Amino acid sequence: MQTANYMDEFKDSKKTSLSIRDIAWAIFVILGALYAWNQYGSLMDQFEVGILSGVTVGLIVLGKLWRSIQQLTLWVTGLTFLALWSYQIHGNVITANEQAFFLKFLVSSQSATMWMSALFVLAGITYFFALFTKSEFAGKSASVFAWSAVTFGLVGMMVRWRESYIINFDYGHIPVSSLYEVFILFTVITGLLYLFYEQRYKTRALGGFVMLVISAAVAFLLWYTFDKQANVIQPLVPALKSYWMKIHVPANFIGYGAFSIAAMIGLAYLITNKALEKNPDSGFAKTMPSLDMMDDLMYKVISLGFAFFTIATVLGAMWAAEAWGGYWSWDPKETWALIVWLNYAAWLHIRMSKGFRGAPMAWWALIGLLVTTFAFLGVNMFLSGLHSYGEL
Amino acid sequence: MTELNQAETAPSQTPLEPEKGQSQGNRPKKPSVFLNFIASMNLAVTLLIMLSIASVIGTVLKQNQTMQDYIIKFGPFWSQVFNDLGLFHVYGAAWFVLVLVFLLFSTSVCVTRNTPGFLKDFKQFSEKLSKNAIKHQPNSAIVESHLAIEEQQGYAKALLENKGYKTKVHQRNDGSVTVAGLKGRWNRLGYFFTHIAIIVICVGALLDSNLLLKFRELSGDLKAETRTVSLDKIPQQSWLGPENLSFRGSVNVPEGEKTDVLFLPYEDGYLVQKLPFTVVNEDFRIKYYDTGMPKSFESDLILTAPDLDKPIRKTIKVNHPLYYKNYAIYQSSFGDGGTKLKLKIHPLLSPIENSIKLNTQVNGIEPLKTPVGTFKAEFNDFKMHNIVPATEEERKLTGHKMHNNGPTIIFKVRNEQGKAWEYENYMLPSKQENRWFFMTGVRTSNAEPFRYLFIPADAQRKKERFFKFLISLNNPLKIKSLFTKLYPKEANISQKTYDIQIKLLQQLIMLFRNKGFKGITGFVEKNVPEADRKKVSDYYFAQTSLALQTLYMDILIQEGVAKTQDDDISEFDKTWFEDALNTITSLSAYGPPMYFEIDSFTEVQATGLQITKSPGKDVVYFGSAMLIIGVFFLFYLRQRRAWIHVEQKTDENGDNDGTEITVAAKDNRNLPETTTEFESIVTKIQDYNNKSQT
Ligand code: HEM
């Protein structure tokens, strides 16, 4: 009697929860992929069809694991279609982005990127406001702003992809191929990664800190746009014409984004730690997540970043083998990727095997950001090499 | 009835099986101090940091430049020091390779030593752990119950399995039972995968390195060639055959020609690799975007080999190489394949029009006998397009960021002493501040940028007028005859004074021709007493200007642009005159007095192929795949253990008084989740007990 009882209990809880919603989601994603294939399939090589399938499966799984992705996808799809439709009814000419109402004010890649920039900065300010006033409402608004920023960033990228083909069919390319474009990618991925941790671990107090890095990236993006006209879509140099770019670059930026978040958690950790040292009853420290929590989160984010950075570096080596004739040439960008990788490998070793915790690791994560930033930006500015995009 | 006690210590510090003394940290045999050092984490982290530092140096210090360039940059002392430290070839330096070897060794020792412990950890459920040891796990709790052992045991097993644990039940002699659970044990494999991957990758990289060549060099059987000579002059010592396991080199193949050798950069020179196949370059193309930027580089190749029935034909592009057996052929660069050049050499000091026609080609060397000495002209390169950033206005006008300045030749002129001047001459005029000029750059060292001379184009956008004007400045006799015709001797001056006057004009033109107006100032400073200098130099300048203008007007009359010496001339002709005088002033710094004009050319391009044989590539890829899998195992699986120990409890009288359940858990990573999960197990057991009691 008893036995049957608890077996039933476990049986019930074992049932996987494949809800109607998940099925609808899968169907939606598959339909979207079929639409893309039907529309643009003739332009894809077999690798790109592979990438499309991979993205489809990935998105279905991601959406099931993290429901908010479903909502985000719907918004991005809707706004992107609004843009494509507006271009269509204006005869598919690029100048429509100055005339058509929706394009001009909302969803041309330029406008969407501007919205993204403004919303990220706004989100940052609101997160800090919420932190100091302890206002629940402000905190929620900040999250909404951050989600909207991510949405507009993704829309900007999708529309830019289309625009590159509208300007000149020859120029068409996925917008992850110039420094300007990868900066948008960076802000979007960092924002999204952060929002994942925010939902999962209820860490809204960290939002302002993460938005600091994102806002810095936004500032760079704006300077780059207005001072250097970097937003103008340029054709690709031959070395970048490869399907590898579509997977190598995003994987890299998951790494960069995660390392940036870890650095900002490190910063929050150090500040909280200081506050606690001065005053164990510090009100500020009470509003922040516990030190242990931040320490743990730092570890989780770095291990996520490390995993993706490993993949990205290996993919980069495979691309290099095809483009330059050798999987490793000690090109500065490549070498700095290795340095970043070694740095975090050492961080993880020290923590996992020696059990180091606390402030030193937080400092290390923070300094790690300098190394990462140099690999990301400094190499392009100060060193020359085979990597062919994004000279300042 | 529950006491939760959570150990503060990190899990790795809690002995798993204290009684048996066989935990990882506590091995039965004491290994040597040396091995301890080699396998230590400190050494590992030190090696990682050394690698990083070496890598930083390698990127900040430009690698593999010529020693010449380094000496210019750092001076003779420091470049010697840096060179001895191997900093100019960091990635091939002995100490760098040593660090890699140490890394390999250290990781191998580490893996070997950890294997038995880890395998045990992978397989073992540790169900035989004593009750006392169970109690001392990082998380443990005691629950008291009135249910029978069997029932508790059944529930415990079901609970752990429901939570994803594999279980093993151990019936003890005293009647108590331990249910041990193990989950996420693949995590342990993560350690092996990542570390063995590092070893595999290093081995792959060593396979592709030039270690064997270094060895052959040390044994004296190989020597790099440093001269630029034809293949048949390269000694056997610098040749490599099919015995070479791996290589990566490049070769330029002109259109219509073929190659069966490859050049491998080696130390300060190169080695020649014989290929087991022949590659013909049928055609090389560059396609351009409408902006003028290159869109693709393509070569049509034909590969023939003795064992191929039919040659392979393939068009290769950047990112689209040709694979043949274990060789890969890449489009890596392009260059000139001996473009045919028809040149016209203008002697700059000649008093008459006597330009020389020269038929040559890129890579040709031509001796030139001239009245000012014997020279050698070496034609190094021809470029069909010279794409430069467009000016602001042009960008507005055309919308293009880039501008094409047209064909150039790059060549050196060397005198008998060996001193060389390098030139870059444009074929077409380019627009500067709304005027058209033919640019020609000159420099005497690679380290300098070119200094440009701007030859003003005439109304036909040609150089004719400029050379005519220059010739007339070079010709004193012509000056004399022109002036005597234009200004005949007046009656009131003597023949002698008149002759002196004419002579002075000739001399002034000569001074100007050699050094510009500065030459005249210099002459006055040297030959005229201070008091008279201002007056004399004013006079001389006026006379020079008059003479130059007269010569210029004479050319305009010859061209038919002007009728008489006193005609008004157009704005264009005025500016042209000023530009021409500026250019002539700079001629003294132009090197040997010759100007090479490109009359016509037939372009022959060469494709730059990179050919590799890389047996280590697949090894490295295999290692990389292992690395990625290992990293995911390490970070996304946690190895967790749980023990539920159930034993009969007796009261003072020795009667059965229900059971005591000891619950414990251990995680190889100390995370907050561990505690939460442990607590949920304890809660479940309590709930079950409570429910069953009522
Ligand atoms: C992907 C890169 C790497 C990862 C993720 C990694 C991970 C780990 C982990 C998790 C441990 C602790 C094992 C344990 O006790 O549970 C460890 C130990 C160690 N690792 Fe690595 N490792 C990496 C690369 C390297 C490299 C390149 C070296 C170079 C020598 C190295 C040397 C060591 C050493 C010496 C230990 C200590 C082993 C011992 O004696 O307990 N690791 N590593």
Radius of gyration of chain A: 22 Å
Number of helices of chain B: 17
**Unreliable parts of chain B:** 1-28
Instruction: State the secondary-structure class of chain B.
Output: alpha+beta
Looking at how many chains there are and whether they match, the oligomeric state comes to heterodimer
Q: Which ions and ligands are bound to the chains?
A: protoporphyrin IX containing FE
Shape of chain A: globular
Please give the number of β-strands of chain B: 27
Q: Level of helix content of chain A?
A: over 70%
Biggest pleated sheet of chain A: none
Distinct helical segment count of chain A: 15
Polypeptide structure, described:
The complex is a heterodimer of chains A (392) and B (694). Chain A has 15 helices and no strands. Chain A has helices at 2-14, 20-40, 46-65, 68-89, 96-99, 101-107, 109-133, 136-167, 179-201, 207-228, 244-278, 283-287, 291-323, 332-354, 359-382. Chain B has 694 residues and is α+β, with helices and mostly antiparallel strands. In chain B, the strands form 6 sheets. In chain B, strands 15, 16, 19, 20, 21, 22 and 23 form a 7-stranded antiparallel sheet that branches. The structure holds protoporphyrin IX containing FE (HEM). Protoporphyrin IX containing FE sits between chains B (39, 41, 44, 47, 103, 106-107, 110, 114, 191, 194-195, 198, 627, 631, 634) and A (345, 348-349, 352-353).
